[in-house]
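S.,

As promised, the adenosine-5'-triphosphate run. Input:
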Amino acid sequence: MNASSAGAATVPALELRSLTQRFGLFTALNDVDFRVWPQEIVALVGQNGSGKSTLVKVLAGVNVPEDGSRLLVNGREVALPLAGGQFRQLGLSFVHQDLGLVRTLSVTENFLIGDARITASHRPIHWRAEDRRIRDLLASYDVDLDPGALVRDLAPLQQALVAIARAAEDLRSYRESNSAEGSVLFLDEPTVFLPEDEVEFLFGLVRKVVAGGASCVFISHDLSAVERLCERVVVLRDGEIVGDQPMAGVDSERLVELIVGTAQDGTDRTGGGGRTSTSVAGTPARCAVQGLAGGQLRGVDITLQGGETVGLAGLLGSGAEEVPYLLFGSRRADHGTMRLDDATFQIGETEPPSAVARGIGLVPADRRRDGMVPTLTVSENSVILVADKFATFGRLRLSALRELVHGILDRFGVRPRDPGALMGKLSGGNAQKVVIAKWLEIGPRLLLLHEPTQGVDVGARAAIYELLQQASKTGMSTLWVSSDFEELANVCDRVLVLVDGRVTSELSGERLTKDNLNTAVFTSPGATLGTPA
Ligand SMILES: Nc1ncnc2c1ncn2[C@@H]1O[C@H](COP(=O)(O)OP(=O)(O)OP(=O)(O)O)[C@@H](O)[C@H]1O
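Predicted complex:
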């Protein structure tokens, strides 16, 4: 069902009217009208900091919106603000990027902990019967899983399926016990770690949930996923709705324009900045890693020229995602040496401070946990690694520091442009810009990137690619680990493919394409492997 056909015949499953949310003097949402029609899949998109999560948090009962903001569920007025947990009684359910599962519990236990009928009952739980029930329930969504398996042992796709099926089940029992129509599933970037074919499987589940009676709001920066899944797209910019259109009538370029606010000259959908090659063939490698072992890795060699961007691709569990942390010393390597310019050292003896001292930087995937200090300001986070260079005779040259911070905020387009804002209050993508900026300020010799543009909007992606490319031109070598193979194909000079802890192929030149990478990560060691083009 789409907006226009539904609009004439029915009331929306959910409607926000004149929603305004302020944080102090800052207006995060301004007079927003947002409708979700019955059994519709609608995309909510917008740049980092445009207000998507703020809107969701109003419905989750976390944010208190301004007076005059209104919420209607199935046409019935519901008073705002909502209390924490009230969303369940309204038939709303949320699946965020972290999926909200308890990894040390089984699939069945994860279903039961959220089930009020079970947690409120004093009767003993018949685990066998519950396992059977959950197995059948998952099967009804075409998900074939052992309900006794621990969540941490499941593949990422299976974990996402469990989280979505659990949310769908909450909505189904809400509809059943209230004889209600409607109910809305909010999916906030649940696909970021999944390769494309697995994303399609997940979309199949979402379509089934919608066919069963729910609506879905899909929040994502992945516009190709948005185009494939959604029937309508609503665009937020700077806290205001600037577009609301059936997906069929929107072309990709127009969508990017709506999101960013200006025409994007030649910016493709990944924001691809093109290859960054500035390395000089034939010169000795700036960095040579030999025999790296630890975690899943079983002896990996990597060389990087000055100015070169080398990608690492692999499925989860291939070991690719461990390399940046082992090289930076935040996880201990069992074996391996690294030569960086003239110095050679044991990687297992590296600690993060010694890595920084050698000119190695790390932009981790979990930026909130590992990449920043949420309780410090944007300004403090941006200059944390270089502040001592601004001291003369024991005194900080504050005006120079201030100038540096303003320069960072402008170059990266960080919003809000407020050096005093707490880092923990920044939206995900804006926080990532500051984390990358912080490392570029030290002028690293080797920058290790893990999923650097995850959760970053199209416009900011292009800015990040551009700034990293400029840094490459000054000789910085970059090791780029990502599950986004289109991105790797766009930004890297070469990509090494890891399977089962070993490098099994290397792609470059014409052969470096998303499709070839997708094939290579499934090619087992010993099969015919690619050679440099
Ligand atoms: N509790 C808060 N206090 C102060 N400012 C906040 C708070 N929560 C959000 N903001 C600000 O509101 C704006 C909107 O943030 P929000 O998290 O909704 O963006 P978003 O569209 O979800 O971005 P992203 O795509 O990066 O996740 C941002 O500028 C953010 O810094």
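The first helix runs from residue 3 to 9. The pocket of adenosine-5'-triphosphate is lined by residues 23, 26, 28, 46, 48-54, 415-416, 425-430, 455 (CB under 6 Å).

- D.
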